[in-house]
Specification:
This protein is of the alpha/beta class. The chain has one domain: Spore Coat Polysaccharide Biosynthesis Protein SpsA, Chain A (Alpha-Beta Complex). The radius of gyration is 18 Å and the shape is globular. The relative contact order is 0.18. The structure holds cytidine-5'-monophosphate. The site of cytidine-5'-monophosphate has 16 residues, from β1 and α2.
Length: 228
Amino acid sequence: MAKYYGIIAAAGIGERFGSNKPKQYEKLGNQTILELSIGCLLACDAIEQIIVVLRPDDLYWQELAIANHPKIQTTIGGKNRSDSVINGLMALMSQALPDDFVFIHDAARPFVPKHDIITLLEAVKNHDVGGILATPVADTLKYSADGKTIEKTVERNCLYRALTPQCFRYAKLLNALMQLTTPVTDESMALELTGFSPLLIMGDPKNIKITYPGDLQPTRDQTASPIS
Ligand code: C5P
């Protein structure tokens, strides 16, 4: 039977967030975004081990209590997200078999519900490639080459936002990422470019990637004490 592993991509700078520390180390309540994102994978018992991919100059990881968790190991990331994920996959080389599954999850997605991860696992377990959580695009989409004037409206019926985790067979994902000649923004894209058709599994639209400081605002507002 295939085994399940996790990789948390946490080697980004989070430039758009504009903080003096990487956004994954900002706190939401009493935990960092990174701890909450890792916690989402830890909640799924089927996941045997989690590799957290960190920046080479990371100053904050060792301060976290979760750094000593028995299911967690770390490795160093690369220049692009795909380099970081390759390093994470390499760290699993001695234990993962080609047909085992790897869940790749963004460090900045702390809101994925446990039942979405279970739904993803159940959907891919008999599939020969794997699949991703996604959600239909809700807004009307406009195309603008200059960012100032609208050229056209893009038909949204067949469009989805790609979320994480994304879960793929170990060897297929590693081979796809190693063959890349163009940059990719998620793991599914690497598989699509090498001729595979990953599954699309509907997930919770609240599973956002925290990118800008404003992305934290509704959460902080919701947790603030009501004004009496
Ligand atoms: O930059 P972006 O928001 O697309 O990054 C998505 C995820 O990939 C983040 O969790 C980030 O930490 C991770 N990443 C990485 N290594 C890089 C760049 C991004 O692990 N070189």
